[in-house]
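Reopening this one. Same input as before:
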Amino acid sequence: MTDMATLRQQAAQSRAGAAGSTAMAVPRDRPESPEIRFMSQLRAKKVTREDGMDWYQVEGYASAFEQGYEMWDMFGPYTEVVSAGAADATLAADPEVVFRFNHAGTPMASTRNGRLELWADSAGLGQRAYLNPKRADVQLLVQAIEDADVREQSFMFRITSGQWSPDYTEYRINAFDLERGDVGPVTYGANPHTSVAARSGEFLDLIPNLPALVAREAFTRLSQRSDLTTAPVPAPQTPAPARSAAPAAQGRSISMLRTQLLVESDED
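Same output, byte for byte:
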């Protein structure tokens, strides 16, 4: 199996070759609004706000600055880094952002109703949401956070400025836009709404058009799976040459042959 370092090197070489003299602004085939997920120490507690009502306060970091994480583009793996200061412009523009669990369902808070606060510091993009304790979905989320069943956070954004390292092994996001995006806890680092089984058909449809590097690596890894090994197919057997048909039986007995021989002898 090809090791990750070699894959990264091969992908970087392919990336550089495709770019030529023109630097790629963003990774090829990267989603316009990707979701990036980070481990975050989520905290949930009940507080009373100035309106006199009780709310669940859920707080944590939706992004970490200056910490690389693995991403893939059409050429293969690379490291992506969100630069410190990448959120400054979008936060200054007062973006409309909602707080949701797993990027789905009804929003639980938003910047427009004043129950979602966003900030950026040396650690990353922070968020603090005030959730209605009367909602059943809020109660389930808070319980999951308290039980440590939900420990990661994510945010969805649009890249507005970024650049590749000279060797094309690292992509740095220098600025992003949060307008009409969302932040909040997520269950897993993989997409929570799909599974390998559910997406098998999609994978099969993609196989004919996979980049060469990815296709070769997939072939290598699949060939090493023990559950895919099958007994060798026996070589086709060369059919035996057809035998000539046996002479049709005459149906005569030995006594009849003897009589025929005697008759022929008398004629001589």
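So the earlier flakiness isn't reproducible anymore. For the record, The radius of gyration is 36 Å.
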